[in-house]
Every structure is written in C-alpha cells, then in structure tokens.
C-alpha cells in the first residue's frame, strides 16, 4: 500500500496523514482495521507526509480495546494476543516515523487510547479530557508500550502508582505530568491539533527527523555517546539543503522556504 492508495478513513492533506484511531460506530474502541491500514501507510508513505495527526471520531479519542469482543471470543487469550500484535505493529511504525506525531485528545483516552497518547510528540487535550490506564479494571496488563513509555514520561514511581491504582487523570493533571502538551477548549481540540500538524508538515522536516532520531538514540546512549551523535547530526544538518536554507534565511532576514529543500 502506498500513500496514494490510502483507504477513505486515512487522508493525506497538506502533507498531514490523518489517522482515526477509534470511531463512534465502534463505541470509540480501538479501530484495529484502521490502525492496521495506517501501519502500512506509515511504513511506505516516505516524503508524501510531513506530519501525522491522530484523532478519534466520536465522543472520545479512544476508550480502549473492544471489551465486548474480548468477552465474545472463543479463545480469549489467542484473540487478545492477535489484537495486541496488530496494535504493536502500529506502535512500532508510529515510533519509527521520522515526522512529528500530533494527537487531538478529546474526551477519554483509556487503555490503548492512553498508550497512543504516550507515543505522540505533541498531544493536545481539552478541559474535559481524561486519561486512564484502564487495564486493572478488567484484570489485564498494559499493551501499546505503556509500561515502557509512561515511566519515561512521569518517572518510574509515579508510573507504577498510576498503573496499579488505575488512576483517572484530568486534563490539568496530564499536562502537569507531561502526558499532554497543553489544553484548549473542547470544541477547539481537533482544529488546533490540525493547525499544529500542518505547521509542522510545512516546516524543516529534515530537522525534525534528526531531532526524533537523536531522541530515540538517547534511550540507550550514554551522555558521551549522545554528545558524539549530536555533533555528527548537527554537522550533517549544517551541510544539508534544509540547514543551508535555514541559516541563509536567518542571515538574509527572510522567512525560510523549507519546501524548496525537500526531495520529491
């Protein structure tokens, strides 16, 4: 599947790939078909996209997995394992993408929905936004990388408390903890997230890719190794079309035209 073959729910406009992670028709549970399709697009889109926008189509961003489908499965463990496998391929593709990922977090982000929020580079919520792990409530353990991302965002001790107590986090709490970037009015969440995604897609995408690559390497690098990686990265950036355009525009006191630096 290529970016131009993207199914109807997946749209690429102004360089932004819009992914609907949950739909009202599915009671805002994780849409496995959608994220499976999105995984393929993320891996093949290349320069066709400059940002990813994650949204929920309904009252909630994503209320978690489809618990009724879990209950109806003849072999629950096997079924849930298959769902987790598909979800985790999406998580890997989202983590690997070199472009910024923006989430428009309306209503509830629970279970898998909260896991997705933890993966976003920028997550915009509203005054009514709430986050909750939700796994202990049904006797499950986390998926979607939450046991890995949450401790890195809020700290190991606080992450254990949130997960073990199945804490409900308000939008304000989530901003203070670093799970959400900021809050806007509820009716402005998707518009603001789209504005941010479009702005990023029109920006220095090569620079963003370098920033995300450095962020990933910092997970395992020592400080000395990371300093070496930063030196190599900034040197390469200075010689790149994006870096040259940025520096030249600054010196010439004009707005940089980063679109001219991208390969087709």
Biggest sheet: strands, sense, closure? 6 strands, mixed
Instruction: Going across the biggest sheet, name each strand in turn.
Output: 1-2-3-4-6-9
CATH superfamily of the largest domain: 2-enoyl-CoA Hydratase, Chain A, domain 1
What sort of overall outline do the alpha carbons produce when their principal axes are compared? globular
The first-level CATH class of the largest domain is given as: Alpha Beta
| Mean pLDDT, all residues | 93
How far the N terminus sits from the C terminus, by CA atoms, comes to 18 Å
Range of strand content:
5-15%
Run of helices and strands: EEHEHHEEHEEHHEHEHHHH
Note the total helix count: 11
Cα-atom Rg, whole angstroms? 19 Å
Unreliable spans are: none
Assign the structural class, choosing from mainly alpha, mainly beta, alpha/beta, alpha+beta, or little secondary structure: alpha/beta
Structural domains: how many: 2
Under the CATH scheme, which architecture of the largest domain would be assigned? Alpha-Beta Complex
CATH topology of the largest domain, which one? 2-enoyl-CoA Hydratase, Chain A, domain 1
Keywords: Isomerase, Peroxisome
Family: Belongs to the enoyl-CoA hydratase/isomerase family.
Region (Disordered): 231-264
Protein name: Enoyl-CoA hydratase/isomerase family protein
């Amino acid at each position: 599947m290529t970016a131009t073959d993207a199914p109807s729910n997946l749209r690429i406009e102004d360089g932004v790939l819009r992914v609907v992670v949950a739909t009202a028709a599915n009671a805002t549970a994780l849409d496995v078909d959608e994220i499976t399709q999105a995984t393929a697009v993320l891996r093949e889109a290349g320069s066709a996209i400059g940002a990813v926008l994650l949204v929920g189509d309904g009252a909630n961003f994503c209320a978690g997995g489809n618990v009724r489908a879990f209950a109806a499965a003849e072999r629950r463990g096997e079924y849930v394992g298959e769902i987790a496998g598909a979800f985790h391929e999406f998580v890997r593709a989202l983590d690997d993408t070199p472009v910024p990922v923006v989430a428009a977090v309306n209503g509830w982000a629970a279970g898998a929905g909260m896991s997705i929020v933890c993966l976003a580079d920028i997550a915009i919520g509203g005054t009514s936004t709430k986050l909750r792990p939700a796994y202990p409530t049904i006797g499950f353990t986390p998926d979607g990388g939450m046991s890995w991302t949450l401790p890195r965002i809020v700290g190991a001790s606080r992450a254990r408390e949130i997960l073990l107590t199945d804490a409900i986090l308000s939008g304000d709490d989530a901003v203070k903890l670093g799970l959400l970037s900021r809050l806007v009015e509820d009716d402005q969440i998707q518009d603001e997230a789209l504005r941010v995604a479009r702005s990023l897609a029109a920006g220095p995408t090569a620079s963003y890719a370098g920033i995300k690559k450095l962020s990933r390497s910092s997970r395992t690098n020592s400080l000395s190794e990371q300093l070496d990686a930063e030196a190599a990265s900034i040197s390469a950036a200075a010689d790149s079309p994006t870096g040259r355009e940025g520096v030249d525009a600054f010196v010439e006191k004009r707005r940089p035209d980063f679109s001219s630096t991208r390969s087709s």
